[in-house]
Design goal:
By secondary structure, this protein is of the alpha/beta class. It folds into two domains: 138 residues, Transcription Regulator spoIIAA; 61 residues, Nucleic acid-binding proteins (OB fold (Dihydrolipoamide Acetyltransferase, E2P), Beta Barrel). 32% of the residues lie in helices and 27% in strands. It contains five helices and eight strands, in the order H-E-H-H-E-H-E-H-E-E-E-E-E. Strands 4-5-6-8-7 form a five-stranded mixed β-barrel. The longest helix has 24 residues.
Length: 210
């Protein structure tokens, strides 16, 4: 489930996702920020406390839930304190996947006319801090996957390295991590196979088909 506004989640929806086998335990929540003042200026509904409550419900009902989100740094008027609030939230929540972008004004949008436009250096520096923190979170999470076996859908084969690339339920196509693995027998794109993970490479998982 991609681009799911957090304020539209109900307990009934969470229960449906948890109980319906046709729905993967993967949720993309486009949060954009975590400081209440910035969220209000962004015209986003909800507060950090409500976001935390939703994530706690999702993880309590589905311990294997994978949560992706995106954030924006350097939104007009973002103070150092507001940014630090975002960074603390990222480190405490430990998202499975996270993208962070520096704010870029778009012509015709209200935010482009806001006071307090930040310089590019500040925006990019804050973006780097969030992404560096998230990298460490992902490394820790992925290290716990070594030795485990996952169902992988095969997306491509590389003849040069004689290896396959695929993804698990934890990864949305084109935007998340992938699984690179070898196999003793030929496999076809679109097939599912069981892959045991034995190594991590940056954001990707390395394994072998069982």
């Amino acid at each position: 489930m991609l681009y799911c506004y957090p304020d539209e989640f109900t307990d009934e929806l969470i229960e449906t996702i948890a109980s319906q086998p046709k729905v993967l335990h993967y949720i993309d929540l486009p949060l954009q920020h975590a400081d209440d003042n910035v969220l209000k200026r962004m015209n986003r509904r909800g507060t950090q406390a409500q976001i935390k409550q939703l994530i706690a419900k999702l993880r309590d009902r589905m311990p294997d839930i994978v949560i992706r989100t995106t954030f924006i740094t350097g939104f007009p008027g973002e103070t150092e304190e507001e940014f630090e609030n975002l960074a603390l939230f990222v480190n405490e929540t430990e998202f499975d996947h996270l993208g962070c972008f520096s704010y870029s004004p778009e012509e015709g949008t209200p935010a482009a006319e806001f006071d307090g436009q930040l310089d590019d250096r500040t925006k990019f520096k804050r973006q780097d801090i969030i992404m560096n923190d998230q990298y460490m979170i992902v490394q820790d999470k992925h290290s716990r996957l070594i030795g485990k076996t996952f169902e992988v859908i095969i997306e491509s084969y590389d003849a040069y390295s004689d290896s396959y690339t695929g993804r698990t339920y934890m990864d949305a196509p084109e935007i998340d991590c992938c699984v690179k693995f070898t196999s003793d027998k030929p496999l076809a794109e679109g097939e599912f196979c069981s892959v045991k993970i034995f190594e991590i490479d940056e954001y990707d998982l390395i394994g072998e088909a069982e």
